[in-house]
Amino acid sequence: MSILRTKPIDDVLAQADDAGGEDRPKLRRRLGSIDLMGFGVGIVIGTGIFTLTGIEAKNSAGPGVVISFAIGGVVAMLAAFCYAELASSVPTAGSAYTYAYATMGELAAWIIGWDLLLEFALGSAVVARGWSGYLANLFGLPTAWFGEEGSVVNLGAIAIVLILGVVATVGIRQSARVTNVLVVVKVAICVFIVVAGFFFVKAANLTPFIPPAKPAEEGEGGLAQPLSQALFGLAPSAYGIAGVLSAAAVVFFAYTGFEAVANLGEETKKPRRDMPIGLIGTLALSTLLYVGVSLVLVGMVSYTEIDEGAPIAAAFQAAGANWAAVLVSIAAVAGLTSVILVELVTLSRIGFAVSRDGLVPNGIAKIHPRWGTPYRMTAIVTIAVAALAGFLPLSALADLVSIGTLFAFVIVSVAIPVLRRTKPALNRPFRVPLSPVLPIGSALACLYLMTNLSLETWLRFGVWLVIGGIIYFGYGRRKNRLARKEQETEHRAADPDPDGFPPARGGQPANTK
């Protein structure tokens, strides 16, 4: 049984078809392009803009963090083009996992699926803790149960995950409605930040736009330094061009999640038309908002004085606009709520696709007869994320989410030229322009950003992949659907007659009863 076997495209499309039996569970098609953009913007605009902007501006890039967000947006857009071609051609749950299965083989598919589970599970847990902290600041709730410091169990994080897990279980349409409402609030507040903040911008705060490089502070070398610096023997530093690039790798976390749209291919009414609109539209809107908000932030307050905990709200408070700070906090709560919901939906769809293929037990992929959702998988991921969010301070693992996402983007980018060569007749409603140059450029750009992440992030990522390898070789390699088909084929070849009689001469069966 080869670990390089690929899943036939026809099989992928058949699984996504509305027809099927009990052994091939189906999701229901209820989403349009607006719903897809709602999900995309709902997951993208969240923790990144409300927290990472201030942290990276203060510690790595200064006002140049605006360039960092632009770089991250360009790289994400390149990957979005690749996702758009694959998602419109092969609209299915699982996105990068399924694309890898059809192009690069089973082991690569398992690695990317395992990687995506890490990305969205940690991402949703981190965001849930951030949501709880913003809620505590907004309503003066006790930090022992809703904050980070001195908290044994974060009840706020657990509560929001469980509530949104119920919404995700009841139905995709209900999830879309909740998300769309929250997205409208969030986008409106982001536009407000750009417009209102513009009147408080001071040119002096934007000079120098890229602060001169300086040696990193003590404790930022060793495993905390970027892989690129360690490989080339460069001294750890902050600011300068290197700081801008390092910040770009970290703030890429802010763009993670747009690929969640590609996981909804089996639940989209017209996926071949709506998937490209949802993916590219999400990235275009999010990049514009990110660049605008980050520019206003570093213009309102000197980068050396930015508050790392709530940078945007604190900037308005420093300008004497306390009422605006309250609005920003409300937007943060709404924004993070939509992020958690979409990530729970995405997690359940990735798990559904992996389970349906038999790489983990099939029973997990069961679809609820009334709600049309993978309710067992949704329940499992909800409980897991609630436990992570409640008991583990995961904010330091944002880098791990970034490396997981960039790795997935590399796989998707490589899949474009591979499928163009192996499946030239595949119907492609959307085609990546300048292929294979643009997909290869996308893969290389993602790899470069990965090298700007710390050595400890690479080590943690390696440990997670080793755990996944143990599960695959211990269970999935022998139990998945393709492996069972191979076993059945070999069995029929060895015993062609069900009654055990060998074929008679002349090709007629020996058994004539």
From TrEMBL:
InterPro entries: AA/rel_permease1 (IPR002293). Residues 484-495 have a biased composition (Basic and acidic residues). It comes from the Bacteria. Keywords: Membrane, Transmembrane, Transmembrane helix, Transport. Gene3D superfamilies: Amino acid/polyamine transporter I. The keyword Nucleus does not apply. The chain crosses the membrane at residues 34-55, 61-86, 107-131, 151-172, 179-201, 238-258, 279-303, 323-347, 375-394, 400-420, 432-451, 457-475. Residues 484-513 are annotated as: Disordered. Pfam families: AA_permease_2. It is a multi-pass membrane protein. It is found in: Membrane. The lineage of its organism: Bacteria, Bacillati, Actinomycetota, Actinomycetes, Micromonosporales. This is APC family permease.
